Amino acid sequence: MTQIWQVQNNQVPERVRHTIHEFLKEMKSADREFESIKKYGQLLERFFVATPKDFEHLTSNDVIDWLNSLGDIKEATFNQYLSKFTMFFKFCEDEGYIEKVLVKKRWRAKVPKPVPKHIDPINLAKYRLTVENESLRDQAIIELLISSGARNKEICGLDIKDIDLENCKAKVLAKGNKLQTKKFSDQCRVILEKYLKVHPGNSFALFVNRNGNRITTNNVRDVVKKHWKKAELYERVYPHRFRHSFATNLLIEGKDLSAIRDALGHAFVSTTIIYTNYPSIELRKLYRKYKG
């Protein structure tokens, strides 16, 4: 039988040690992993060593003061600690050791939104070279993703009539059932011209699967990942990353927010701002790679 992790430090008051043990036992009975239980126990031990008080003398200030004393920890880590304390003190409240949970919801730190993950220009070039050896349909799908900034679902919804080869434009049904126009590259136009000559012709849909049915977002995801693997690229990839890369390229070319908003089809600049959260140093690195 797996042992329960136990507080060993005698600086922790005996009744608190016993309560932590009972709490961890309950976690084990709920089939929590040993490592997860151990992390709860270690955090509680650290806190009660620094704040060796019994429950009747413990206050919310003790908790927040200790958390603040940890210094420069990431917002996500801070929130994880808060969640662990909340779970423990809720147990203590249920058992009658304290009258109320000592953690305040307002303490939660605002976690910064992650910077959108663009694709390294060198990897993108390698990917394009690999895709050149694949079917015209797959080439067209991937080049549209790369050069137009269109969403996965928008590409799946394209009909043949939506493509304007002469002007390198495609009409897509975007979010909110709004029609938008996407521009694509000359390279994409050449591929589409070749693809349309061999299109099965039994469907209005621009892209169809082997059964002649319109492709799905899962089909596009599979196409993207299959050729990414063939290119021997190992970082995680998904269709929306091409949209991020499209926006990043516009940014490092010096396009302003309104131009990027229009190209992405966003209703508000505030939505577009997430694509411009790159530190200036990172932007300079991207620019050098982009320009070779």
Give a short synopsis of this structure.
Pfam families: Phage_integrase. The chain has 13 helices and 3 strands; from the N terminus they run H-H-H-H-H-H-H-E-E-E-H-H-H-H-H-H. It has helices spanning 14-29, 34-50, 60-69, 75-95, 121-131, 136-148, 152-156, 186-197, 217-230, 239-252, 257-264, 269-272, 280-291, and strands at 163-164, 169-174, 178-183.
Polypeptide structure, described:
- By secondary structure, this protein is mostly helical.
- It has two domains: 14-107, Tyrosine recombinase, N-terminal domain (DNA polymerase, domain 1, Orthogonal Bundle); 121-291, Intergrase catalytic core (hpI Integrase, Chain A, Orthogonal Bundle), CATH 1.10.443.10.
- It contains 13 helices and three strands.
- It has helices at 14-29, 34-50, 60-69, 75-95, 121-131, 136-148, 152-156, 186-197, 217-230, 239-252, 257-264, 269-272, 280-291, and strands spanning 163-164, 169-174, 178-183.
- Strands 1-2-3 form a three-stranded antiparallel beta sheet.
- Helix 6 (136-148) packs across helix 10 (239-252) and helix 10 runs antiparallel to helix 11 (257-264).
- The protein is elongated and about 80 Å long.
- The chain starts with 13 loop residues before the first helix and ends with a helix.
- The relative contact order is 0.09.
- The model has no long low-confidence stretch (mean pLDDT 88).
- Residues 14-93 form the Core-binding (CB) domain.
- Keywords: Cell cycle, Cell division, Chromosome partition, Cytoplasm, DNA integration, DNA recombination, DNA-binding.
- Pfam families: Phage_integrase.
